Amino acid sequence: MTPDLIVLADTVHTMDGQHHGQPVQAVAVSGGLIAAVGSRQEARDWQQTDTRVLDLGNATLTPGLVDCHIHPVFGLDLTIGADLAAATSLDEVLTLLGTEAAHDGGWLRGWGLNPNAFGTVPLHRSVLDGVSGDQPAFIRLFDGHSALANSRALELAGIHGRFEFDQASEVVCDADGVPTGLLLEAAAMELVQRHIPQESFAQRKTRLAGLLGDFARSGLTGGHIMDHSKESTALFQALEADGELPLRLRAAPWCMPGSGEAEWKEMARSIGTGGRRWSIEAIKLFVDGTVDNGTAWLYEPDVHGQSTAPFWPRPEEYSAAIRYFASRGIPTATHAIGDAGVDHVLEALESLRTDVPADVLRRTVHRIEHIETVPDDLVARFKGAGVVASMQPTHCTHYSLADHSDNWSTRLGAQRAERAWRCRDLRDAGVALGIGSDWPIAPYEPLPIIADAQLRRRSGHPEQEPIAPSQALTARQALEGYTSHAAKAAGQWDVSGSITVGKRADFTAFELDPLATGPDEFAASRVLGTFVDGEIQFMLERHA
């Protein structure tokens, strides 16, 4: 063995369970792979004349953190204009939009709007009309599945009443059939979006490069991208032409209602294509929308009589799509938030046992994304179906409250709200649980997310009551969600997810030990560096 690099750290968590009682403080890298794992004393024997040695001192080294659910390219569209995520009242929203309108001569844009900020005021175009003047306005709600347009924007888009769509989308109208400005789901929002001036490719490339750099500085070495398009391919290729991507990216294009075998065949052909650090590896589907805008799929309606329909108007066509991809050994990831939606996905995946050869099923990972409210019997079915859970703890801690006074909880009612984000129950049932952010729906920084998964409240806010505290993860379980279980969620446990000889040399270095530090303190601490293929992507300069 002639290592290119040896990394030393006082604490190394391998996450592979192979070093009980044997402290690991050294990792050797050769050709982008882990060549040896051992003690500082053993590292002296590995070192050759040309070996670079990097001593991180009292730092903690782990496998590289991987966000299991992000939208970096799609997020470029969702993060234009005023950032409304921190607004907690309608006055704050209007102040931020007014400031944005004052220096924007085109469209008034905003994103991250939490409907809880409106209180009892309806989401209506008239609220925007008062601050936008003659400008068309298009404001994205935090869930990414809905938007509010003002009267001028509706006029430009030719929206004067209801529309019929191939998917569960809606131009919300009042009792007289007049649009309120609220647009639910992608097809409805696209009616307005197509009229908004687009950024140049060069501008988007610059923004994406900055975003991926920020991801690396936050501690991420990889991400599962839950959308992919021709533009994504062009952007990744352009960035790679300039140098390496700072993260390893696994992408999944969308399979939408109204598609059929011709479209599915084209998507299947894309599997395995990509570049040096990015590739298309799965298919993303939706079976419902969101609780907050009334488009989830629930057994029983929410308090407004909504969330009763699937995203695919003919859900048997969703099941046919799953069967098409699964029979070809192609992994799938399905957005399913409500209990009826999760039930249907599990049923579709369980039915594969009679249609798909056992060896194909064993090597193909199928996932359900989000899983916000489910009863006990659905939790129990995950393990039997061999399905991976992919969840976002900060959806719970940022957008719901322990007293159920938030929009999400109020819509569901107390019983279903008590079933919020059952992370611990799924882990205790033996289910692999990948953790992520769903950026830009919630912040991407992994350290606060790891903390929130343990606290069941926002890190740094000890005054807040935890939400369903029985669902708190242990520190190890939370870290596993970004490392070993993230690899299992991608079907890549054989090549990543632990510091094990032969696996990829992707690491994250921390100022504090995530397994021995209180969650609030850990969330506020620093990431010292990230490595991908044994190459430093980011390293914080530390002063004595």
Q: What do we call the CATH homologous superfamily of the largest domain? A: Metal-dependent hydrolases
Radius of gyration, whole Å: 23 Å
Return the CATH class of the largest domain. Alpha Beta
| Shape, per Cα inertia axes | globular
Question: Strand tally, please?
Answer: 25
Quote the average pLDDT: 95
Q: Any low-confidence stretches, pLDDT <50, length ≥5?
A: none
* Fraction of residues in β-strands: 15-25%
Question: What this model shows, in words?
Answer:
The chain has 544 residues and is α/β, with parallel strands linked by helices. The protein folds into two domains: 330 residues, Metal-dependent hydrolases (TIM Barrel, Alpha-Beta Barrel), CATH 3.20.20.140; 113 residues, Diaminopimelate Epimerase, Chain A, domain 1, CATH 3.10.310. The protein has 21 helices and 25 strands. The strands form five sheets. It has a six-stranded mixed sheet, with helices on both faces. Strands 16-18-19-20-21-22 form a six-stranded parallel sheet. The longest helix is centred in the middle third of the chain and has 17 residues. The radius of gyration is 23 Å and the shape is globular. The model has no long low-confidence stretch (mean pLDDT 95).
Keywords:
544 residues, alpha/beta, TIM Barrel, six-stranded mixed β-sheet, six-stranded parallel β-sheet, 21 helices, 20% strand
Concise structural overview:
The protein is an alpha/beta fold. The chain has 21 helices and 25 strands. Strand 18, helix 10 (315-327) and strand 19 form a beta-alpha-beta unit.
